[in-house]
From TrEMBL:
This is Nitrilase family, member 2. The lineage of its organism: Eukaryota, Sar, Stramenopiles, Ochrophyta, Bacillariophyta. It comes from Seminavis robusta. Coiled coil: none annotated. Transmembrane segments: none annotated. Residues 152-190 are annotated as: Disordered. Residues 181-190 have a biased composition (Polar residues). InterPro entries: DUF6824. Residues 26-111, 211-295 form the DUF6824 domain.
Amino acid sequence: MAAKFYKEQRDKQILSIDFLPCPNTVIVGRGKKVAQHAGNVRFQELVKKELTEYSAVATTKADKSNIIQRVLTEVRLKSPHAFVKQDLTTLRWYRVEENAQRITTAQAFRDALKDKYKSSRVFKKLRREKEKKAVAVAMNSMPLARQVAALQNDRQPTLEDDTASNQTPRGLESKIHPTLEDNTASNQTPSGLESKIQMLSIDFLPCPNTVIVGRGKKVAQHPGNVRFQELIKKELTEYSAATTKADKSSIIQRVLTEVRLKSPHAFVKQDLTTLRWYCVEESVQRITIAQAFRDVLKDKYKSSRVFKKLRREEEKKAVAAAMSCSMEASKLK
């Protein structure tokens, strides 16, 4: 394990502690905030500039590789740190390796040519939407008893089900690290709360007692989040036995008070537009605590993340079964 850790540190080119991405630097990640970063906007313009040649002229892998190299060279001319990511363990920015830069550029071309490539993000999104529609059609054509049976799972949910989606693909473990921008959907500042959030100082970094609001393996491993989960488990028996909303609310308040006693900035998020940390408002803090209880009591709550994951798996199985039935019916005709 130690050898693997030091190899990871060598692979990453850690930047200075006060580094912030400049307008010409490309942030590697997904989400609206990342896409709106000035460096990412310029990167997309470079991709569109080479799009015609990449799509029509390039017929071999070598041709496409040359075009990708041209885009990389153009980005590097404008910024010494061309492609960067943030490691949530140390909260430090680092340069991604050459191979990851080329993969990012190739993926940008595939996304722009979404009608041509099945590996584009747009194509994958459309496929998921079609699967959901197929599920709805299949469920509507089934009797009520069969609908209930299709959504129930014989086995009990396990913690492995929830962590499986957070595992790094084999072969990239030592090079690719989940970052805050991977969860930008949960890090966006709601438009109605812009005037209410408390922006922290520009040099603020979450302390070991601060809870980072978000999802993913790196967020879960932050010391403040680990301690937060311990507080949840401590109050779990009483919360599970509580029968009224008022009882549960008082338990949530106890956890909230305990977190605030250890850290003046109890629950924080990072805005990727300004790269500034801010304190989330009290209602979001209470929602975060309630969700943590539901996730631990996954067998009891349909709103837990594990239950939702199981439901998606069952929907996919229902789609596969419906498509199989339709194919068999067409063969009989």
